[in-house]
Amino acid sequence: MKQIQIIIALLLTATTVNAQTEKITIRTSNFARPLIEKLATEYSKSTPNADVKVISSKPQTTDNFIQVVTDADGVFFARYAVLPIIAYNQEALQIIGTNRLNTKKIKELLFEKDNLSDDKRESKLAGLHVYTGASQYSAARLYANKLGRQPSEYRGKRIQGDDIYINSALTRDALSVGVNSLSNIYNIESRQLVSGIALLPIDADKRSRQILDTANLDGIIALLEQRQIDEIPTGRVGFSYNKANAALNNFVHWVLTDGVQYLHKYGLLQLQPKDLAEQRQFIEQKELAQNEK
Q1: Most buried of the four, 83, 245, 271, 286, by CB within 10 Å?
Q2: What 3-state DSSP class applies to 124?
């Protein structure tokens, strides 16, 4: 009889623990995946009943599901930067020469000519091959929009799948250029550019040029948090999810308070303090409304 009581008690305990488990599934693109995996790990440590899974493809169910989004409706927690890059070899760099490119020259390099333009001269920059991402989450979309162009106006080749494949395209083509997220083009351990890629030299003030020329991830993050550079636009990273779901709100609130400390390590920028405070206030209001029910 005593053994039966013990078995029943264990089953009841297991059922209770299972019922309290907060299962969370997060889908993300590669540029933010290392950060999201870190957030999932740290949140699980602080919340023992949390079961957080990070995926790349569509989930089988949308229950307790979070989608990492860029510049779309969501609760924002970080910023990402997009930089123009070039294959790191003598042949490509010789075409660029010693001149630094301003926004006008970058448009000339990356995009098809505007039909209304009076400038019909063929630039030597046309000899470079452009590679850009084709997905709806590609950094190429932000870059085009910030420069006043449409993603469909890029010249060259569209790379299917994740933007990480743009790096591979540039290393295979000696005359290639493209754009990619800061976190995609830097090694988060060495804090240096991944092999085979260089930053396209841009026309910026002296201090900014010095920092960009060092090609150190931490220096560039600090620079972009302090000032805006037209040739290096930034966008926002957020979570899209069912805000009526308490488990998901708990996770997002933790990210906005404790998780943002990991942004720099993984190549993302902090929100402006005012913007971060607004996002926290929004989530806290949702939590308060849920507690009053």
Answers
A1: 83
A2: helix
Mean pLDDT, consecutive 10-residue stretches, the chain (293 aa), reads: 48 47 91 96 94 88 89 93 95 87 94 64 81 92 95 95 94 96 96 95 93 93 95 96 93 97 98 94 79 61
Helices (H), the chain: 2-20, 33-46, 90-96, 103-110, 139-146, 164-172, 182-185, 206-214, 217-226, 246-257, 273-292
Q: Give the number of other Cβ atoms within 10 Å of residue 95's Cβ.
A: 16
* CA–CA distance, 50 with 249 (Å, rounded to integer): 13
Extract the tokens encoding 180: 């990619």
Q: How far apart are CA 65 and CA 25, in angstroms?
A: 5
CA distance 286 to 293: 11
The values of phi and psi at residue 116, to 5°, are -90, -5
CA proximity to 139, closest of 168, 169, 159: 159
pTM: 0.87
Helix (H, G, I), strand (E, B) or coil at 110: helix
3-class SS of residue 81: strand
Query: Residue 192's beta-bridge partner residues?
Result: 216
